[in-house]
Amino acid sequence: MKMTTEEAFVKTLQMHGIDNAFGIIGSAMMPISDIFPDAGITFWDCAHETSGGMMADGFTRATGKMSMMIAQNGPGITNFVTAVKTAYWNHTPVLLVTPQAANKTIGQGGFQEMEQMNLFADCVAYQEEVRDPSRIAETLNRVIMQAKRASAPAQINVPRDFWTQVIDIELPVIVDFELPQGGEQAVQDAADLLSSAKFPVILNGAGAILSKGGIEASRVLAETLDAPVCVGYQHNDAFPGNHPLYAGPLGYNGSKAGMELIKQADVVLCLGTRLNPFSTLPGYGMEYWPTDAKIIQVDINPDRIGLTKKVTVGIVGDAAKVASGITSKLSDSAGDTDRAARKSTIAQTKSSWAQELTSMNEEQDDPGTSWNQRARADKPDWMSPRMAWRAIQQALPVEAIISSDIGNNCAIGNAYPSFNDSRKYLAPGLFGPCGYGLPSIVGAKIGQRNTPVVGFAGDGAFGISVNELTAIGRGDWPAITQIVFRNYQWGAEKRNSTLWFDDNFVGTELDEGVSYAGIANACGLKGVIARTQDELTAALDQAIKDQMENGITTLIEAMINQELGEPFRRDAMKKPVEVAGINKDDMRTQPLA
Ligand SMILES: Cc1ncc(C[n+]2csc(CCOP(=O)(O)OP(=O)(O)O)c2C)c(N)n1
Ligand SMILES: [Mg+2]
């Protein structure tokens, strides 16, 4: 069939149902964006491609539907790097379309040239460059299928002179296949281990969310065994939070109950998780990873099995299928050993942690440091981070989708909200980019119009994406709610300065003259300042109503004191020693040009 290359491209997108694109317009993509409206594809023109890429990530994570990033070759495309790598470790299947400088001139150092394949080589699961205009649909189809298979970003690089060519091709077909259910023997071995376990524990990761029916299958298995279910770091929605067996997130500022329970395990089923390092690092000063337990690890990607921890049984397969297979192979008496005692241990551990969490108001100082004590004394009437989180919980609808950002206040929130459904919690993940909170929640709302959404960010991280306030108030952009924790500091890094650098604060202070609520108002959105718990609860309550009923986007600037919680990287930091010493007098003066 005769068609143009751009028609072939867009027809292939349509075949796969990819109907939302994020980026900034540029001449190298115009031949296809020109026909987006006719194709039923919405182009969301953001203020910065990094945020646009994170919107695509948020959209796809909240919906399970693939979306795409697209921009101008060169500087538009380089701006996507952080977002694509972020999506990679969020296991998000997104399509990255990178128009390329023209073959006719590439290598001459012309305009907006960049080696875009090398640029993303370490950020995508698959990448391919179109070699001939007639292969554009074939290549695109393969790239999209690879993104789905790997549940990760995949890139198609298109020399811009390949657009607007007439080709004669058949559209390619989509090849779908059933995912593996795990090796028969391995599933039996796992079932045997769990059947004879005294204290089995399940640890759900992103794979439980990505696998169709994964959470449900883990619930059935957990109930059969009466095994508590922990979730991996930043995958807090990988098991229903209202289930009696839910034990909460492991890692930094997570659920102490989950940590205490998994510590007692003699067998752990790790379901759909690569066991990322932050899911097993000590929390609350506690080493909880059960080094003597038998570990069963299930992952769709064999490369990730046994990567970080000693594993007894590895199973390559789909989380739902493997969990169901294990359940069907359990012995009749599986879970019966100490069942009643285990159930009461779970209930007691959870309830004492819930009580402890409610009574936690202050952040602790390490011995020999006093930052938190000084921070409280400095602003005695201000909310502490935990007071702010409790006020937020009062107004946060249970069905809300929330995002998080990288920073101390967002991290302190780890143990607070829980989720009864999956695809509700968009944390920045293990690439750890500041600036994820706002764009990801905007993307989520574009995909889930009938669900209330609330984005979270610290004030430093928010500054990275603040320019999106100039984009999201327009036309069809749906209303969202964003909370900014205003402590006038890059807090998470400042905590490192207090612990390892004797309060030598380099680059940690923010401008107290800046009002984010004011910026929101200037962008035609609604900016609100909340100084007390009551004000914060009321502001969030009103903002959700405004979002759902009146189409109003609200930015709530939550004014909090400067207390700082646990540092992210106790594992990676150590106090430096001075050996040669550094002296200002050694600095040479450069002549001015
Ligand atoms: C893009 C990026 N730049 C820098 C960092 C390093 N970093 C991690 S946390 C943090 C501080 C975050 O400060 P803020 O957003 O104000 O939140 P707070 O810790 O004060 O709650 C920084 C700079 C990062 N993770 N990502
Ligand atoms: Mg801050």
What does this structure look like?
- The structure is a single chain.
- By secondary structure, this protein is α/β, with parallel strands linked by helices.
- The chain has a 6-stranded parallel beta sheet.
- Magnesium ion is lined by residues 407, 458-460, 487, 489-491.
Top keywords for this entry?
593 residues; alpha/beta; 6-stranded parallel sheet; 22 helices; 20 strands; 36% helix; globular; binds thiamine diphosphate; binds magnesium ion
The termini sit apart by 62 Å
Helix content: 25-40%
> What structural class do you assign from the helix and strand content?
alpha/beta
Number of strands: 20
Average pLDDT works out at 97
Percentage beta strand: 5-15%
Strand ordering within the main sheet: 3-2-4-5-7-6
Low-confidence stretches: none
Quickly count the helices: 22
Question: Which value, in Å, is the CA radius of gyration?
Answer: 25 Å
- Heterogens: thiamine diphosphate, magnesium ion
Tell the overall outline: globular
Largest sheet: 6 strands, parallel
Set out the fold topology.
Elements: E1 2-4, H1 5-15, E2 20-23, H2 30-33, H3 36-39, E3 42-45, H4 49-63, E4 68-70, H5 75-78, H6 81-89, E5 95-100, H7 116-120, E6 126-129, H8 136-150, E7 154-159, E8 166-168, H9 184-195, E9 200-204, H10 206-210, H11 214-225, E10 229-231, E11 246-249, H12 256-263, E12 267-271, E13 294-299, E14 313-316, H13 319-329, H14 339-359, H15 371-378, H16 385-395, E15 401-403, H17 408-412, E16 425-426, H18 437-447, E17 453-458, H19 459-465, E18 481-486, H20 491-500, H21 516-522, E19 526-530, H22 533-550, E20 554-559
Parallel strand pairs: 2-3, 2-4, 4-5, 5-7, 6-7, 9-10, 9-12, 10-11, 12-13, 13-14, 15-16, 15-17, 17-18, 18-20, 19-20
Antiparallel strand pairs: 1-8
Bound molecules: thiamine diphosphate (TPP) and magnesium ion.
Magnesium ion binds at residues 407, 458-460, 487, 489-491.
